[in-house]
């Protein structure tokens, strides 16, 4: 499964780098050393769209148009601490709760955390959760697959940390299986400063069809001059995908950075926009 993701990563990079030449199915398949038939099936399974549809989506151009022409609906409403009624992810309400200073000081004493590694359309993912909610969701760098687990152990060195893929698979299935999600709220339990939490909550107001600039998010939290600080807070997002930091672009519509890789960010945006 990991090799498949690496092949699709190479294909995505090739398409992006050659979009002006409109590469054919045969050319992309040859680049990753697969037959057209197997490449078409593999790409469609992992990217959620056909290679042709992916090429046609022109995600970056559409994202630029969204920034230039479509005002964000979330900027038309006053910012509220917590979630607005329009904040949904796959028909879930997402609840975010902060780790208290005393809980942080205890470093997880008396706490049980379960974790698991799972495949996803965007490569291997690492999920950790407590009875209070999801505390970490990372895309895994296969050059250092143990990094997310080490990060979890460092942050919660006094917790009882247990691998339980059956438990964590419930969340993964809800996010990626395409089946009807559990109607109960999806809870996050994360550690951050008040500023970081405000930024992450603002990100939760971005719906699947929306992108924003760093300046938009700064305005949304009432700190219009804090674009740089917003970017730093976005870069420390502890819960990939669910807190949708991938929907934040540079003001000119370029992708900008992404903690888990620019190619993956492009793939996530493409899948979301293609299915909107």
Number of helices: 12
Low-confidence stretches: 69-92
Largest sheet: 4 strands, mixed
Order of helices and strands: HHHHHEEHEEEHEHEHEHHEH
* The CATH C-level class name of the largest domain: Mainly Alpha
Strand order of the largest sheet: 5-4-3-6
Q: Do you know the CATH architecture of the largest domain?
A: Orthogonal Bundle
Gap between N and C termini: 27 Å
Q: CATH homologous superfamily of the largest domain, by name? A: Homeodomain-like
Strand content: 15-25%
**Shape annotation:** globular
Rg measurement, Å: 19 Å
CATH structural fold name of the largest domain: Arc Repressor Mutant, subunit A
Number of domains: 3
Q: Which percent bin holds the helix content? A: 40-55%
Q: From the helix content, strand content and strand pairing, which structural class follows?
A: alpha/beta
Mean pLDDT: 80
Q: How many β strands by DSSP?
A: 9
């Amino acid at each position: 499964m990991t090799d498949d993701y690496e092949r699709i990563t190479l294909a995505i990079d090739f398409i992006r780098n050659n979009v002006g030449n409109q590469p054919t199915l045969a050319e992309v398949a040859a680049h990753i050393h697969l037959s057209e038939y197997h490449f078409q099936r593999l790409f469609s399974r992992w990217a959620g769209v056909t290679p042709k549809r992916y090429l046609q989506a022109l995600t970056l151009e559409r994202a630029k148009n969204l920034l230039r022409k479509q005002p964000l609906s979330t900027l038309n409403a006053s910012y509220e601490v917590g979630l607005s009624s329009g904040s949904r992810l796959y028909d879930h309400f997402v609840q975010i709760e902060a780790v208290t200073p005393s809980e942080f000081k205890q470093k997880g004493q008396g706490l049980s955390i379960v974790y698991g590694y799972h495949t996803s359309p965007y490569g291997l993912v690492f999920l950790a959760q407590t009875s209070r909610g999801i505390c970490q969701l990372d895309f895994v760098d296969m050059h250092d697959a143990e990094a997310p687990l080490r990060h979890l152990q460092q942050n919660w060195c006094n917790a009882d940390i247990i691998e339980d893929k059956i438990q964590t698979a419930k969340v993964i299935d809800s996010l990626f299986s395409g089946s009807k999600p559990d109607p109960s709220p999806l809870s996050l339990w994360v550690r951050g400063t008040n500023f970081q939490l405000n930024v992450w909550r603002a990100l939760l107001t971005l719906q699947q069809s929306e992108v924003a600039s760093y300046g938009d998010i700064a305005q949304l939290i009432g700190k219009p001059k804090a674009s740089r600080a917003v970017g730093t807070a976005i870069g420390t997002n502890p819960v990939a995908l669910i807190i949708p930091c991938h929907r934040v672009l540079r003001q000119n519509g370029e992708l900008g950075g992404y903690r888990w890789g620019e190619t993956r960010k492009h793939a996530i945006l493409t899948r979301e926009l293609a299915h909107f």
